[in-house]
Specification:
The protein has helices at 14-34, 52-58, 64-68, 86-97; strands spanning 43-46, 108-111. By secondary structure, it is mostly helical. The chain has one domain (4-111): Rossmann fold (3-Layer(aba) Sandwich), CATH 3.40.50. The radius of gyration is 15 Å and the shape is globular.
């Protein structure tokens, strides 16, 4: 698991963004090294997800600032118009773990409603 913050800078979140970018690259390197053994390596990068951590960060502001974006904080907004649920992220992980994804490796699947591209 990583975050869409791995590819889009965030004000005040430099260490977080850098750690998620490192997770993406580590996954891709491991994928190259392990592919000859039939091991697939992918990473899922959620965007804003409705979790207790997000509620703590937003406080009374709710989801609107995330959905609408905020150019002062370099937040692009969420084109699909909603914050992801934990189930949205879990379904993507479940797909990648299934045989339906048997020819997918070295990928960074963003589950963020189009917030990054």
């Amino acid at each position: 698991m990583a975050s869409n913050a791995a590819t889009v800078p965030r004000i005040g979140l430099g260490a977080y963004c850098a750690s998620k970018a490192a997770a993406v690259m580590l996954t891709r390197c491991l994928g190259l090294e392990l592919s000859r053994h039939g091991v697939r390596c992918n990473v899922v990068s959620p965007g804003s997800t409705d979790t207790p951590m997000l509620h703590e960060m937003l406080g009374e502001a709710g989801h609107a600032p995330l959905v609408d974006g905020n150019s002062a904080n370099f937040r692009l907004g969420i084109p699909l118009g909603r914050v992801a649920s934990a189930r949205d992220v879990a379904e993507a992980v479940s797909f990648l773990l299934s045989d339906r994804a048997r020819h997918i490796t070295l990928q960074d699947l963003k589950v963020d409603g189009g917030a990054t591209f």
